Amino acid sequence: MATNTRRLHIRVTEDEYNRMLQQMRDLGLSTYSDLIRLYINTTVCFKADFNGLFEVSHQIAKIGNNINQIARAVNTNHCITNEEIDILQKEMISLEKQVAEAVKAKARITRFSSRTESGGDHNGSN
Fold first, then answer.
1. pLDDT band at 1 (very low <50, low <70, confident <90, very high)
2. Which residues lie closer than 8 Å to 23 by C-beta, 6 or more apart?
3. 44 close to 111: Cβ distance less than 8 angstroms
4. Quick check: 107 and 53 in contact, CB under 8 A?
5. How far apart are CA 108 and CA 50, in angstroms?
6. Could you report the per-residue pLDDT of 30-55, keeping only the tens digit for each?
7. 20 has a pLDDT exceeding 70
8. What distance in Å separates the CA atoms of residue 73 and residue 80, rounded to the nearest whole number?
9. CA gap 26, 22 in Å, rounded
C-alpha cells in the first residue's frame, strides 16, 4: 500500500471553498483529502487551446470588410442582378464551410482522465 508522502497547500476563494464544502456533503465525504483524491482518481478534465482561432477571427474580419464593400457597391449602383446574387450566395456557402473547417483544425481541446493523459480530438474524445 502506498504511503502518503506529499503534502499540498492551496489557497481558494470563499466561493470555491463553499462549493468544495457542498460537494463534500453531496458526496458524503468527511475530509478535503478524500474529495481531492476522488477528483484525481475519477474526474475527467479538459483543457481548451484556442490560440489558433485568432487567425480564423482575422479572416472573418476580412470577410466582413468584403461584405461591406459589396453592400456599398449595391447601394451606389442601386441594382444587382440575380446572377450576382447567386454568385454571392455560393461564395457565402463556400466561406461558411471554410470557416467551419478552420475552426475544427485550429481549436484544440485536450482530455485528461485518471486512466490516461493523452490528448484527444476537438470533441475531447480519445
1. low
2. 35
3. yes
4. yes
5. 6
6. 998 888 888 888 877 667 777 777 77
7. yes
8. 9
9. 6
Q: Is this structure's pTM higher than 0.70?
A: no
Cell readout for 21 is 464544502
For residue 19, what is the enclosing H or E element?
A: helix 14-27
Residue with cell 471553498: 17
Q: Decide: 44 and 117 in contact? Cβ < 8 Å.
A: no
Separation CA 23–CA 61 (nearest Å): 44
Q: Whole-angstrom Cα distance, residue 50 to residue 36?
A: 28
| CA–CA distance, 15 with 74 (Å, rounded to integer) | 54
- How far is residue 75 from each of residues 22, 83, 92, measured CA to CA in Å? 60, 17, 19
